Amino acid sequence: MNNAIEANGLGKLYGRRWALAECTLTVPAGQVVGLVGPNGAGKTTLLELAVGLLRPTTGTITIGQRVGFVAQGAPVYAGLSVADHLRMGQALNARWDAGLARRRVRDADLDPRQRAGRLSGGQRAQLALTLAVAKRPGLLILDEPVANLDPLARRDFLDSVAQAVTASGEGTTVVFSSHLVADLERTCGYLILLAGAQVRLAGPVDSLLAGHARFQSLDDLVVAYLREIPR
Amino acid sequence: MTWLAWRQARAQLAIALVATASVAVAAVIAGRTDSTLRLWLSVLVVAVPGLLGVFWGAPLVADELESGSFRLTWTQDVSRVRWLALRLAVAGLASIAVAGLVSWLVTWWAGPLDHVGMNQFGSFDSRDIVPVGYAAFAFALGVLLGALMRRTVPAMATTLVAFTAARLVFRLLARPSLLPPVTRALALNPSTTSYGSSGFLPLMPAPSLQPAAPDLPNAWITSIAIVDGKGNALTSSELASTCPGIGQGRGGGAAAGGSGHMQAPQSVVNTMHDCVARVAATYHEVVTYQPASRYWPLQWYELGAFLTAALLLAAACAWRVRTIG
Q1: Domain with A186 in it: what CATH number?
Q2: Domain check: are B227 and B283 in the same one?
Q3: Percent of chain B clearing pLDDT 70 (strictly above)
Q4: Lowest-confidence region among A140-144, B16-20, B46-50, B172-176
Q5: Is A13 on the interface with B (CB under 8 A)?
Q6: Interval B115-124 mean pLDDT
Q7: B interface residues, A as partner, C-beta within 8 Å
Q8: How do beta strands A190-195 and A173-178 pair?
């Protein structure tokens, strides 16, 4: 399968509200994909359907590879130490690169004995990313990984995602979501715009911009598409 | 994976073992002279399974759902059900071990007092092996309620209520007939039969004849009925027509113008004696009971019933965890 994610008529109903509706989508493998959209657009729903935390109400979603996932807010166990988390990653996974995990923890300046509950937001995001990356997944999914980080930690985190992708080779696909286009601009080669529970735009950033010559930047393009959605 | 389950259970287990050891040391130092201590230790054995269900069972899945850490754990290679199975196994076996240890210690400590003291069935719930079944059941019940309610504190409260209700219902409805009870027919003895009512206020039955319990050492008497040759119970109207004025006579205390328990006047005793003798012409007493030798079979059956229920609850937990989302 050459696609990292294939969704067909995918929908998720919460009570009487469709969090995601009629979503048909293919994400090509080997890309860094930005999933952008306003808050409540269905980004988290789409990603959690992809990793199997949610079950679809309609349609199907298929994943080509093993997934490493960092959930929104980068949840960790407050009572466990950083080292405990690495050991947990090893215990819960069939494939685990312990050397990579140790290296990443060292590079991010995390103290292995520190309890995760006492880490800063940026450190916690780095720990969660380490757990996801050390699985050596073919597909890395990050849900709003930088939403709560200050600008410096944000930059550091995005750089370490880029490094992780480079280190793991060509075939790796990364999908990460954000409500800020600026977070995606530097890193993404492929864009999916989600708004009002539906996919509005999807494609390689270059060809999206080439096809809409009147827009100077990705930001302008996204805003123009968002304005077209009736409120 | 077993490592994670153990890592998340070990602190709780350490606290429980330290608490158990402290109680054991205190009980040994206090010695067996204090009968209130025997009562409190029995209460402890009854309470421990409930506490394990509330503090170990209910948060096991609910905490993961409430804090969001399930999004970390359930997206690894290990499946949700396998994750749950190992956490249930480790924390469930720890619960069983703690309840078993507490029960064993109290059974040992109270052994000499139990031996000379009251009926063995009086402390059935707080001795020997049944507390192990209660602990497994309470734990699995807590896990399931936590997984269904998705919030820790409400799940803890509900676990306590549901566990207490289940124990009471089993105690009142199931235990007396776990093994077919033995019945024995006796003639009514006018010298040892009294008149009155026993029970708690909302459920107070109408007053009737109360034969004294027959001498069945260490047996569990579940009912004493007064029936005629065809098996019909003595009704209150039948009693009133056989013994006019019963229950209207003043007791000894009131007749003497005082209060408290005093010897009834001889006339009242005689009236009562004659009444019972008249009733005994057509009615006799049927005692339903579990003989002393049934103590261990009943312990095993009750243990088996609660362990089976615990396994069913665990299966329901697996179903619930699989379908969340």
Answers
A1: 3.40.50.300
A2: yes
A3: 91
A4: B172-176
A5: no
A6: 80
A7: 1-4, 7-8, 11, 67-78, 83, 323, 325
A8: unpaired
| Residue from the list B3, B7, B68 with its beta carbon closest to the beta carbon of A71 | B68
Angle between helices B152-169 and B130-149 (to 10 degrees): 140
Closest CA to A190 of A179, A180, A176, A200: A176
Could you tell me the residue range of the domain that residue A131 belongs to?
3-227
- Please tell me the total count of domains within chain B: 2
The partner residue sitting opposite A53, judged by closest CB among B1, B323, B325, is: B325
For B171, the domain range is: 2-180+293-323
Q: What is the pLDDT, as a whole number, of residue A231?
A: 45
Sign of the CA dihedral with A40 first, then A43, A46, and A47 last = negative
How far is A95 from chain B, CA to nearest CA, in Å?
Answer: 8
Is the predicted pLDDT of residue B194 greater than 90, yes or no?
no
pTM of the model: 0.88
HSE toward the beta carbon, residue B317, CA cutoff 13 A? 32
Same domain, B221 and B315: no
Q: Residue A58 in 3-state DSSP?
A: strand
pLDDT of residue A39: 85
Mean pLDDT of chain A: 88
CB contact under 8 A, B72 and A55: no
| Residue B63 distance to chain A (closest CA, Å) | 10
Shortest CA distance from B3: residue in chain A: A91
Judgement on whether residues B281 and B299 belong to the same structural domain of the protein = no
CB spacing of B75 vs A69 below 8 angstroms: yes
Share of chain A above pLDDT 70, in %: 97
User: What are the angstrom distances between the C-alpha of A140 and each of A65, A161, B243?
Assistant: 9, 9, 89
Answer yes or no: is pLDDT of B258 > 70: no
- Position B256 in a domain: no
- Whether B211 and B226 have beta carbons less than 8 Å apart is answered as yes
User: Do B126 and B148 belong together in one domain?
Assistant: yes
A97 interfacial to chain B (CB closer than 8 Å): no
| pLDDT on residue A229 | 61
Residues B221 and B117 reside in one and the same domain: no
**Looking at the domain assignment, is residue B259 inside a domain?**
no
Contact A128/B72, CB-based, under 8 Å?
yes
